[in-house]
Amino acid sequence: MLQFDKGIDKKDRIIAYYSMEIGLDSRIPTYSGGLGVLAGDTIRSCADLGVPIVGITLLSERGYFYQKLDSDGNQIEMPVSWNKDNFLTLLPAKTTLHIEGRNVTVQVWQYTVTGVGGATVPVYLLDTNVEGNSEYDCAITSYLYGGDLQYRFAQEMVLGIAGVSILKELGYTGIRKYHMNEGHAALLTLELLERDKVDNNKPAYDPHNVRKMCVFTTHTPVPAGHDKFPHGIVRNMYGNISRFEMDDEIHTDGMLNMTLLALRMSRFINGVAKKHTEVSRSMFPGYSIDSITNGVHSPTWVCESFAKLYDKYMPGWRTDPFTLRYALSIPNPEIWDAHMVAKKRLIDKVNSLTNAGMDHDILTIGFARRATAYKRMELLFHDIENLVRINDNAGEIQIIFAGKAHPADLGGKETIRRIHTRIEELSGRIKIAYLPNYNMGLSRLMISGVDVWLNTPQRPMEASGTSGMKACHNGVLNLSVFDGWWLEGYIKDATGWGIGLKPTDAKEEIKTDNAADASDLYNKLEHEILPMFYDDKPKWMDMVCHSIALNASFFNTHRMIQQYITSAYCH
User: Whole-prediction pTM value?
Assistant: First the structure.
């Protein structure tokens, strides 16, 4: 049974949580997007709940990248500058792993997350920039998701292999569960096999014993998103994987598939939403895949004005977000006032950055996430003239975009450029802004300051999505395609609006139709959202209250961690 208390000794910490990226602080660029932010929220909830866990990630000394946008919307990737000594503590512990036959030394930095009750969770950031390593090896932990396949595989060797051995060097002797947040850390399973065989003098590898220790959360609903490495790279850099006698089960098209390795070696496997779990089961038949829907860390994502309101009417919500269900009892005028404080902060920031001239009283739509094709950032502009007509006749709108494209995603970069073209085309008719360098700090402003949070992914490619969960924590209503978490969070006339058809069951697939989805989006704006916002404020506020009470109270990482405890960690 897990023991929850403030003073957890190293020997009593029994869970190790591995993630290629962890969003610890907006000033620490060790994350690129949703996966890292989720990992950070997970760690924060574990600290709040006193869960005996440690976090393992890479230092990413050069971060992901700082995004600049020129006047035409061209993305310029700038190096990230941050002083790790201001946030992290370098520890004396070191470990060594073999890459291409070379000894690579790995040192470790610590960041400590403190929960609301005083319990702590240490997060260890692995760093190969150590004197004595080659220039190439020093740079392995420099760039998050940087370089070619060889560089990426080296990073995953550091995360998985050094990530296991460093725990021993740090004095953790009681780790019983190794939780892989995505497949990037899957090599830890092979390291555990080696250690189990050697430490226990076994004549052969014992997958059953290692499998009992491993938990795997998959986040990617499309085959192309799962890491795969050619045999040549694996043999040259790691060695002979055939000795583990599971080649057929962990390879795809002659390549090592990190997801298959994690699946093969984990006792508990889960997707991150009910729909995503069904998709994962169809992608990987034969594996028992459970479902634990993602959440967000409520105290982190609730803005200051709403936090004060919740403290007044629902004391205890920080430690028990289920308390947010009592939001229905908060007087509507006070909720509206709290929202307007957040909205004014956002609009003033947008105007200072972009000179967009946005208005505090106009219905504001927010769209911020990674700029890539399946997110369909441009769906709102499918029929420009129709959008302008709705703005002129049903009620004014203004739109705020943000999001980075991966440096190698040329299509995502082109999307940003086209949105900037639309901004110019619609100048004087609809106010639109695209904010650069989307990060946790900017996210907090946007998800609390807009009126409607828009999400338009191509089905079923949204594994979960957490930005909409953050929005509902701040009284912002969702307008979203039926995918990911919204299939579970949507309640008609209560929590927001859906775009397109809703599947009647989790296994049903609905073909993506841009024209049909855009038409339904415009219809919702013209006939439901704008009339309610401008002419029926009581109904609007009723939905806001229900969104907080029904969605924020459930879609949080406290609930999520409690599910992991009962389903994955205690068995």
Answer: 0.95
